[in-house]
Amino acid sequence: MNNDVTTFIGKITAGATHEMNNVLAIIKESSGLMEDFISMAKPEQLPQRERMLNVLAKISAQIERGVDLSKRLNSFAHGVRDRSASHELNKSVTDIVALNQRFARSKKATLTALPSDRHIYVAMSPLQLQIAVFTCLEYLLNLVGPGAIITLKTVERRATEAVVDFVVEGIERHPKEILSDPNATEMLTTLRETAEQTGCRIETNEAPVWFTLLLEKSAA
Amino acid sequence: MSQCKLLLVDDEVEFVNTLGERLSMRGIDVLIAHNGAEALKIVEEQRPQIIILDLMMPGMSGLETLKGIKAISSDIQVILLTGIGSSTESVQGLNDGAFAYLVKPLQIEELMKKIEEAAVLCPGKFTKDE
Fold first, then answer.
1. What ipTM was predicted for this assembly?
2. B54, B10 in Cβ contact below 8 A?
3. pTM here?
């Protein structure tokens, strides 16, 4: 993608997420003030006290959800503008998983990340990695049916190589049957091309690890 | 808490007014400013002991306002408020003499804890009036 376009998208998204965070901060303080008022009232003044507090707890939980999304979207926006040739893999994969929950839900699939307990730095820009992982995810979500549990597991495989394993569980059809479908084969070819364009490789595996994205490690 | 003034500085009017009301309900004498210049004027005239200062403000930035505050009185304890993606500015603020920084949206309990810690360092300390 053109650098000017990605910089533009990154700047607009970063600014908007900052504003979204401010909106959430105002909702949080307003909901907190309401909670303060409720806690000051005598029980006979507020017979619906518990129900009101339950509603406020729901608002609070949604604020936390919104804040988490804005933080990850902000991080994504900065990644889009980041031209550096090295960054941390676990954070990028965790962010991508969080930002793709809606796509997973629309396919009735569950999407989780299983990051390594060690920092792993890879030799590619955040945007290249985001494109590679997203394309793999999109491919999987189009193939697996409802009930699939997709886990993206980051592993430091060798001194020079890190991988993202795409683990699929909870489906009834056998992976070989799904992958032998002509559409799946064609999509896999496109997927391999995208991976190569972004500087990584794809290795197909036996279930439950359907395939693995191979990445070159770099210094921190 | 009483006997100590706290100044809240943020350009988000709804945020600062609501947070101000919550802090007042907790016994704190709250002053409000919506930009850096207004904040410095209040600091000159009313000498608050603690300031809660947003880093990302239009016009005079939070870091510029912090320098202005410290130039008026180095005894004033400043707690910075940061949004997402402002970690560099937060660290710069600590280097420039801020007491602490908190990330928005705030947890009121965490903010109260920081205010109490900052109050210990104030010349005219807060006293609990509950």
1. 0.88
2. yes
3. 0.83
